[in-house]
Amino acid sequence: MLKKLLNRTKNKNTKKDFNQEVYDSYLNNDSLKSSLSRLKRLGVEVSTVIDVGASNGCWSAVAQTYYSKAKYLLLEAQSEHEKQLQEFSQKNDNVNYVIAAASNSDGTIEFDCTDLWGGLAITNEKDSNSLCKQVKSTRIDTCVKNLNLNGPYLIKLDTHGHELKILEGAGELLRDCNLIIIETYNYKINNEALKFHETCYEMEKLGFHCVDISDITYRKKDDTLWQMDLYFVPNRLGFSKYNEFE
Questions:
Q1: Nearest CA to 73 among 45, 93, 52, 90?
Q2: What's the pTM?
């Protein structure tokens, strides 16, 4: 999600504060704005937002426009972002952050730090490289319990293929989760990653139905479909029960 915004803003005036510039780019993105606005209008309630792969907090800053009364938990594996996350949390009483990679266990995990804006937790040794390092790992369930954060929840995953492991570590939370937003791909970007249709299949098995799509991106090499953000709600909300257009 964030990497797309960096590409959009790299040619703009660099004198602006970086955090503000990326925030402005998010805010002016009609696709993201439309999706969040539409889901709130449909009555999708959220008391806690869990932003996984939070980078410097710019995605949560925009989500606050729509879910201003919610509590926010930002999870980010790369400590280089901590200063900006700390500043963001100090300006917002409803924000907490944890420097750790979300996964299916509490401990440590290998993390690919090649790209500051696109890191990846590694569980397949074929994806490992010389720039990988050990970082703290945590289950979302553990963080939510420690911080006493209540549902219903929104989970945003910008995690480049580690989604199933993260959701495995959020098993308790999923029972009271109203919205999951996942950055997905049309190509197998690493050995662990799912393509977008495989993500939909796995989410259906968990009881979640895709209700929206945003931020469609085409790759530079050949202008074919590269990635998108998919929005999933639980079947218990009832949207998947109605199969007519009108």
A1: 52
A2: 0.86
